[in-house]
């Protein structure tokens, strides 16, 4: 079975893939003919595909986010690869393939990531901070198993958000050792809470964001997390204006650093400054690592990366 | 008694004034002498003043925000007017002067302004919106009687915030009549809530802001108001993610329009667009009106107004 | 007869429409075939359409901005609706349809709008201001009946400019009542003059702008209006540097507020500040109202609105 | 007689100078003493000066922009040179000194500059362009003899505007030879008209701008020049929308290149692009030349130049 | 033979052209057919072209940057001209056509341009500056014969860089005469060195840039030229921190004026200020001249020019 | 002996201090009197001081950066502390005080820091990279013992640059472990080279920068380091365009990330992205740590920190 990333022009191939998108459209022939406009995907990438002359059965048989077996030919259309589908059918139980094998995922399993996060929470020494963090994580616990960290910017895959948290926690632990004046409870709590509302800000399935939720657009994950901390305080009987509550809200509200990047206040606590840079460094380096991993070894340059001033990354060889 | 605004160079005067600031300082003579560095104020303006050769009694007798009787001489120092104090004493009960006569105030009494605001709240037809607004106003009810709308930008005087609200409500009522597709309940609630946390964001006395509170710096009035709406919902048993709660939070969060002006989300409801422009127009026109009112009639130009791209306003005469 | 806005995929329909654009093009078949590339429109919207296999007669029969009777089928092409034309012929006198029924118009008739504007001019108490305004309006009187207020930004339809003026005049009247220090003559004149050169800045037919005029590009409507005021003064024997002339020019020149928005000077008169905000508020709220009106009731979100930081507007329902 | 630029700390000197500013002020001694706060100037620079213990006669004897004979001592006050005046008296006729010897001037005489400009106008081949230019120059003919080109930015001295025009005309002539597709009449006219309204935008005496005029603030020299071209056309019977009028207005309106620099339209004619760069290059190189000329030879770096991104210029020696 | 620029819709033509790009692609017919997707060019412009039904021989016969004889038909596709190729064959020796006749070139021959540049170098009076300039020019001597000055911005044709240098040297000579305080050696050297690394920054053939080199992306032509000057100094035994070396590096490093335009330092020498404006003026005026030259005489407006704030240029006629 | 940081208003004290600045000035008394305007400093801060009535001996006895014994009185002048000097004399050998005890220093000794840096260089596995780094470090080896990392922004003290390098190397080592795809040789070399030219860009003594050098202003440390790498390559016989040389130059040139922050190219290698964030994070967290350390424990807020968007940092206590 050929991985999407390995397909080149003129390849004929047979294999199982994720039917990421499918829509019935019409050619502009006379009379117009129906065809299926498809996006095939696996964990290594995705490609547009066409099933010309779709029958009525075809039009009923396929739905987005299902698995399919495809026989196809790779062609070039407007300078980009596109699959002409020869044969296609939905996967059957006896094929023994499962969805999670066909999506892009964090390199560590969700189970392990969430275990690590819970361990870090358990190690928070201040009880009120621990309770607030627990309350907020509880709001999205199920979704955290698969939520990506962003729509396309960085960590945009199954478990991406939890993976982002865990790498940031590692970096945070190092920084706290290097600079002991930082309050480790606050920094850990800030790392876990900073993007905690993202699973409710975006509608995602299998790590793929389809759109922003109404709440995500009208309120945004930064203010949502601040509101959750207030809700936690009210429900847990902690003063809504106590230093801990204000501190955690400040960490969340300021982590994008500037107003034009979405933060209504700028970092004004040592841990808030640290949180911003830990977040930025982890996100940017992951973009670089992911871009290098998904660029064929024969290419010296990755594609342009929007989150890096739209620059491509070069593989220096010597 | 001469008003501050009317004093000119070489005037000798006697009168009661507010001692807005007072500090003991030392000249660089040898040996150094103590003097009192003072700011005198009344409802029409303020002037720096010096009491040279301050006695030990003088140094104990005066405190900021008290009323004093002053005999003084107006001089010019570095191109600006400054009062040389001849005699000064604290006001006594028998002088019959009271603080509120010496501060800058909104042109309508606080009592009347707050009555109007309460009337508008009473007229909100949706019970949940009315309850949330009532809860949030309740948090600052006492301070609303005197709170200014800003530190110096606009409506920076006793009752300024309530006055800003009431003028905006008038404008909002007109706009709702002109464009009936707007939801009047939402717009009124948005007007009342948009700056409702300002009395807790800034520390003010008699309409004069001395500094921002810790909460004001770390969280800011926009996010504070959003958090209060969440707290109201939790305490009132309204769903924290119900459309009304999201809508009110959106109005508050987006009213500065752009991220660089402090709004984490941009207006995405008709009422939010209206709220932003009603707020901006009322604030800017009030700056203009106040600048013209406090500029002597003999001057064609007001001073530069920071909130108006630092432009001065011209009195066109014809 | 089905309105454009109501057509959905697979609809077959017959009706009269405006042929907004029509061009002969060729398919890339061998040999190439001629077809008509068409835009059909009515007051509710517009759709691309194709007449495949256009005969020589077809190629001669149709011209832009004419009315046609069409039998068509709605299809989807590249995710957007497109009409496949089955039959098409020009409208005939006996069809009893008239152009103005098929274009997007202001909700109030041009006759009524212009009557209102003239009434306001008649009420200006200062004779010189009234004469200058009359002179400038006289330059575009005929075009004012149909001119839009912009190419696509806001009020982009038949009578849009006059409608924008009238709503601004209503708002201006309210503001003058709320803040009596404003000079009502100046504000009204400013409202009428601020966009008065737009009908000469853009080439429009039936409320649809096809392009900017040479004068529009080289001088722009803001400087054109300033020049017209000078011309009026010279021709009417009013001093070109008299306060009224400078005041009116300042209102026009500063109404975009900032240099990067096209204003060579910033507002420095109270009425200029008011004019800018009245203009901005009316334009933005009309964008919102028009976007909501042209979005199907089944949709929660309007399309993105370029003039509103490219945000979509949400219909909050509760 | 020592030139201002040559004075150093501890110098005692006697000489004639321009009394650029003079004001009666008071020390904060008890009782306060009157002193004269003065700015002394000549063509090479200016210095603050104090006449301590000013007598009633002194206070009446001096007025700004008069010539005086001074005996003084140079001191250092807050890191800057300042003159302590020992003796001072107004210049008398028999002293044989004249004002224009004491002000900063263009290196070429006004008479010669204006002669050159008139010669260039005479050489314009298109009669209508020549007439419009003549009309506009006629409006400021007298002031052109002394007007500076700016308040402080560049060419801020007696005859500076005419000097700027003449150097630009030289450069324009070269460019027209190098690139013959440029229309020389338009470019010359554009150079002469681009700043022609500056003498009315600013109030200047002896090449020193004291403030902007009301018209300068409300309309600005760019729009004033555009209005003058309209006035010229009306009075000369040239069509106000003829290509020549639009072309000249475009040159004037676009010469600051960007909206944020004050141009309501951007250059859209070849001559307008040339005009902008000729203007910019001449202004910036003159700033550099003037800064180098007024910096003592012993200094390697000029002071910071605001118009050059606030950079200082280095004298490279090798 | 018809020039590309003269072709209009429905023209049938025969002639020789440059095959600027060629690629085998497939139609989306069933089964897909191969066709050649081609860009035809000559010195006056370029057009897309298609050879439908390409045979196996066709697919082997053509390569980019070769000359071909074409019989074609001009059609309109998506509002743009496109050539349908009837017949095509590679040019043969007996056709007597040569590549350089079919590319866009500077209006002066490379031989002449390079001769002029060498003459200027020979006239530099300082021996060390002359040696450094000679060393750097030596690095790209061969490429200078054909290198363009940019990928698409300005002077994007055969010999464009040398042409840009020569016109700048003319302008520089004039400026040095007008302002004798400028050091002519430094300014000339700066003009020759400022873009000297461009032939190594971009990969170009026949004046057409295909891409940036790795060095061009990672280091950029500005820092490359600075490094070359260091290399020259080391190899020529000139002090790497001597004033001349620093001066030349400063000229090169600062010539883009601002950090956001790629200059790590801002101009701080008189010659650096002059160099920046000479460079900018020559580049912009050449954009204008080239745009006017390649726009049909029947068009009043050129296309939008990206390097001129995306404005089009108008041909004023009177 | 009282530390500068501990002095409060009205304190009388005796102790040894660093005479950071000293200048003879004159009072504006008649006749003027000479006084010494002084800045006293130790490792904890600095204060302005005055020696009134300076004798001729006093005026000769003191020079900047010398140690002095002072008896003084702390006063308030214009809201800031200032020392009135009672007695002052230069320190003598028998006082047993040494300069380095009175300056602000990195918390780790220079010897130790430089030892660590050399150890890291020794561990670079690629010989050419090691040689280039060694060459560049060799250029500033002596100055590295005391050079600060910036004039005032961050690490502005004795040994600050070496301290910045060492902390960055620790962080770089952690990141390379966390993300093994990074090339550790390149990242370490980039960290050591990124600011290596700073000791030549600024003129510093005892960790205090007095000004930028000519080379620092005209070329800047970023381009200087790039030039040094070229020089190293030439002298060591390594290809000036070899991948290693380009890679190291890219790391140095891009480390400020954006053009407006001084980088002529943006990061386009994984190690360059990492370098930028390691540099930014270390600089910002050190600013925070230093601000907290030098703010009295009784203060909740540090002063505003220019390098942190001019925000103050809050000490959250709970």
Automatic annotation (TrEMBL), chains A, B, C, D, E, F:
Q: Name one Pfam family in it.
A: HD
Looking at the record, the residues that make up the HD/PDEase domain are: 157-293
Signal peptide as annotated in the record: none
Q: Is-annotated flag, keyword Phosphoprotein? A: no
Keywords of the record = Hydrolase
The cross-references to InterPro entries, in alphabetical order and at most eight, read: HD/PDEase_dom, HD_domain, NA-bd_OB-fold, YhaM_exoribonuc/phosphodiest
Q: What is this protein called?
A: 3'-5' exoribonuclease YhaM
Q: Which organism is it from?
A: Paenibacillus vini
């Amino acid at each position: 079975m050929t991985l999407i990333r390995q397909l080149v022009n003129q390849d004929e191939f047979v294999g199982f893939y994720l039917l990421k998108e499918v829509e019935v459209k019409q050619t502009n022939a006379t009379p117009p003919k129906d065809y299926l406009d498809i996006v095939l995907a696996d964990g290594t990438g995705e490609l547009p595909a066409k099933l010309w002359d779709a029958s009525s059965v075809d039009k009923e048989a396929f739905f987005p986010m299902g698995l399919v077996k495809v026989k196809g030919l790779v062609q070039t259309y407007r300078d980009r690869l596109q699959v002409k589908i020869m044969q296609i059918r939905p996967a059957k139980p006896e094929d023994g393939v499962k969805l999670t094998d066909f999506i892009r995922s964090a390199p560590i399993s969700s189970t392990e990531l969430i275990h690590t996060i819970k361990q870090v929470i358990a190690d928070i020494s201040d009880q009120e901070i621990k309770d607030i963090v627990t309350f907020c994580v509880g709001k999205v616990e199920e979704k955290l198993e698969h939520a990506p960290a962003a729509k396309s910017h960085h960590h945009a895959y199954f478990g991406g958000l939890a993976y982002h948290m865990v790498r940031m926690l590692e970096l945070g632990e190092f920084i706290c050792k290097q600079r002991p004046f930082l309050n480790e409870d606050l920094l850990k709590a800030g790392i876990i809470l900073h993007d905690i509302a993202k699973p409710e800000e975006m509608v995602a399935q299998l790590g793929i964001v389809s759109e922003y939720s109404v709440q995500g657009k009208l309120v945004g994950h930064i203010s949502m997390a601040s509101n959750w901390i207030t809700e936690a305080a009210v429900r847990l009987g902690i003063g809504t204006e106590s230093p801990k509550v204000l501190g955690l809200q400040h960490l969340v509200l300021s982590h994008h650093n500037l107003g034009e990047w979405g933060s209504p206040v700028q970092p004004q606590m040592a841990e808030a400054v640290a949180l911003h840079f830990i977040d930025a460094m982890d996100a940017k380096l992951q973009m670089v690592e992911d871009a290098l991993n998904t660029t064929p070894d024969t290419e010296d340059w990755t594609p342009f990366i929007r989150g890096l001033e739209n620059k491509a990354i070069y593989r220096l060889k010597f």
